[in-house]
Amino acid sequence: MQKKKRKYxxxxxxxxxxxxxxxxxxxxxxxxxxxHLLIHILSxxxxxxxxxxxxxxxxxxxxxxxxxxxxxxxxxxxxTIEYKSYAQPxxxxxxxxxxxxxxxxxxxYLGTFRIHFPLNGLYAAHMExxxxxxxxxxxxxxxxxxxxxxxxxxxxYSRNIHFQKSFLNTTLESLHLKSVSVERHFLQWVITNxxxxxxxSFHHCDDASSKHRLKIVISSLKLxxxxxxKCLKLLKIDALHLSAPNLTxxxxxESELDVKYRSVPSLVNVTFGGSYCHHLxxxxxxxxQLEKLSIVWDDGTNYANRDPSRSWFNSVPINSRxxxxxxxxxxxxxxxxxxxxxxxxxxxxxxxxxxxxxxxxLMCRKQREGPRSSLAANKTQFKIIWHLKTVEYLGxxxxxxxxxxxxxxxxxxxxxxxxxxxxxxxxxxxxxx
Length: 433
Known about the structure:
About 20% of the residues lie in helices and about 20% in strands. It has helices at about 35-40, 45-50, 75-80, 90-105, 125-135, 150-155, 185-195, 340-350, 375-380, 400-410; strands at about 70-75, 110-115, 140-145, 175-180, 200-205, 215-220, 225-230, 235-245, 250-255, 260-265, 270-275, 290-295, 330-335, 340, 355-360, 370, 390-395, 420. The strands form three sheets. It has a 13-stranded parallel beta sheet. Strands 6-8-10 form a three-stranded parallel beta sheet. Strands 14-16 form a two-stranded parallel ribbon. The longest helix has 17 residues, at about 90-105. The relative contact order is 0.05. The model is unreliable at about 1-25, about 150-160 and about 300-320 (pLDDT under 50).
């Protein structure tokens, strides 16, 4: 019996002549590569595609079970999450798929374990098993995002996921949690025991079982990036003390808390949102070391401006509203408000005398204008912005506030070279549509 010729994968197929015989005796070079290279190739595609390679030949059977990076992020889910609700059968199907993949995995350890899918508390037991699997595999990078677009609905079915301390290990380098209910003291335990942690992010996390307030002390020699986004209040935390000599980036979008900066000599990039924008003077102790400053003005940030008698910006002279950020090169302001006040924006711009890039993100499609006379009446008070070279607007729809600010900047910035007007909503920029 004639031996079957092995189907080959031609790495140079683009350069073959049409007259070449596809049934020649050339070998399958790709399948002859060692396992670790084939596994690396599989790591470049999504898990579903990697799993399908088992049908290519016996050589490929089961190779996908040795993957050390497990990313359960469905592109279609990510692209439609804001417009589509997921029924329980779809959640069940996703959970079954994840359970099958992790039950088949033979890797000695995990580099990355990532799950992005809208799940509620009904699946808490499965979530705990996934975390146990990741920690037993000594995961280095862990990311969980369960979305919780309708928080009231989700929390009504939720219970805390219990992160057992025995599962945590010193290999953990990055931890990103979004819309996850965790047990009390988990945050402090991670900071204290995960000695190699470099990146920590908590978004919309809560502790539904806790009723008592606590103080968190973040003391870490290796922590470089720290994010808290609308979760500390839900976690019943009312004080935060930072002592991280290698911390370079800090994102803080929270309601008012007692924040103490004990030691942050390397901090150069900060983002503040929520009511914290009213307390930028707390940065005066290290304002000179910052290189990038981002401010988020949302509906809860500028509430005082709606009542001039309570306005924080009107309570102090214009030249002393902010500390001076003498080394800030980039300033970014994100506004989700319908009310935007030019004097507030210009005051912050003037506090950054060496700024060369200014970016304005307008998240609200319909802007409700502040007093039109505010800028005209005070334009002689503003200083020349000598170093500004680039201005970028995202979400620009022609509102009078942004237009008037643009005119002001062009008059005050003699070195201005680029002015970009982008009508796309900022949250969609950089995403496939």
